[in-house]
Amino acid sequence: MTTRPLRLVVGASAGGHVNELLILLEAARGLWPVEPSAFVTTMQIAVTSFAAGERPVHVLGEGDRLKPLRSLAVLFRALRSAWQLRPDVVVTTGSMPLALFCFWSRLMGSRIVWIDSVAQVEKMSLSGRFVGSFADLCLVQWPEVAASTSGTEYAGELF
Amino acid sequence: MILLTVGSMFPFDRLVRAVDELVASGRITDEIRAQIGTGSYEPKSMPFDRFLDKSQFDTLLHRADAIVSHAGIGSIATALKYGKPMVVVPRLARHGEHVNDHQVATARKYEALGHVVVAYDESQIAERLVGIASFRPSPRAINADGVAQRVARFLHKLNQGPGGRET
User: Fold this and answer.
1) Looking at the complex, does the CB of residue B150 fall below 8 Å from at least one CB of chain A?
2) What's the DSSP call for residue A127?
3) One digit per residue, pLDDT tens: chain B, 167 residues?
4) B161: closest chain A residue by CA
């Protein structure tokens, strides 16, 4: 019996979420036991943000609760990506498309680390509350939000 | 030069139109460069791009004396990183600009911390822009290492967890 390295998949929606993830990955250098083996984002324009090299970058598309049809497409692409990437652990800074990716990955046995955006200054995002119900570690970036949300921790901020 | 940016997620025609009209009427005399995303309103009085890749954006950012933006955290953080003065306009759900009004809370929070100037609606944009280039945003102290270390603790525990992962 041999063990293989953890398959770590990191992900974030294009825009601020990706920036938060990049800052986290920069700070994580030399701290984490493994490098990410794949990246997940929502728009083609964000793909080059990750210095992915040979590692895959999956694009889920954008979806939110105002566009149900697009969200359905994102839901299916998230399933396909989770199936293909088979993460052991997902680390994500949101948002909804990544929450859907976390949902499918969890069903396939992955551990989930959700970091709610620093933009959520008063309460957790809807996606965060959804993923928080099955995440293994749920971090928020304002102490006040952690204090008022059970099951969350404050450990610092990315922005 | 003032850089107007609406981020990549949703259009923000209300902001783009307001700034374009202020340029047209002469109330804004600075050079404006606009990034307007998927908005349906096309500016008539200022040059614009829909999307900018990172290097294009960085070039404009370095040149900019000030930034006008939605109250998106990505834009605010970028401005603070380079110490650029910034006016933010929160997106509002009632105009279909976001799924909810959390940008109002974001704007209020960062305004209270001295990081940004806020125009809560488009009628305040012109007056907030007066003298914005001399606004000195208070620098933001962040602790990304704390977050990375907390996740590291989790990953190490997982990596050494009972059973391990078999190939």
Assistant:
1) yes
2) H
3) 999 999 776 889 999 999 999 999 999 999 999 999 999 999 999 999 999 988 999 999 999 999 999 998 878 888 998 999 999 999 999 998 988 888 999 999 999 999 999 999 999 999 999 889 889 999 988 999 999 999 999 999 998 875 455 44
4) A6
- The CATH architecture annotation of domain B2-141 reads 3-Layer(aba) Sandwich (3.40)
Tokens of A68: 């149900």
Nearest to A122 among B7, B105, B145 (CB): B105
- Rounded to 5 degrees, φ, ψ at B74 are -60, -45
How many residues make up chain A in this entry? 159
How close A58 gets to chain B, by Cα (Å)? 18
Dig out the tokens for B154 from the structure. 């989790």
Q: Is B96 on the interface with A (CB under 8 A)?
A: yes
Distance CA A33, CA B158 (A): 10
Task: Search chain A and give the residue with CA nearest B97.
Answer: A66
**CB neighbours of residue A123 within 10 Å:** 17
Predicted TM-score (pTM) of the model is 0.79
Does residue A48 form part of some domain? Answer: yes
Q: How far apart are CA A112 and CA A109, in angstroms?
A: 9
Comparing CB atoms, the residue among B73, B151, B152 nearest residue A16 is: B73
CATH number for the domain spanning A31: value is 3.40.50.2000
Q: How many domains does chain A have?
A: 1
pLDDT per residue over A25-75, tens digit each?
999 999 999 999 999 999 998 999 998 999 999 999 987 777 788 889 999
Report the complex ipTM.
0.95
Residues of B in contact with A1 (CB under 8 A): 166
- The answer to whether residue A1 sits within a structural domain is no
Residue A2 lies in a domain: no
Residues of chain A found within 8 Å of residue B101, distances taken between Cβ atoms? none
Please give the residue range of the domain that contains residue A92.
8-154
Instruction: Check A24 against B143: CB less than 8 A apart.
Output: no
Q: Which one-letter DSSP state was computed for residue B67?
A: E
How many angstroms away from the CA of B164 is the closest CA of chain A? 6
Domain limits of chain B? 2-141
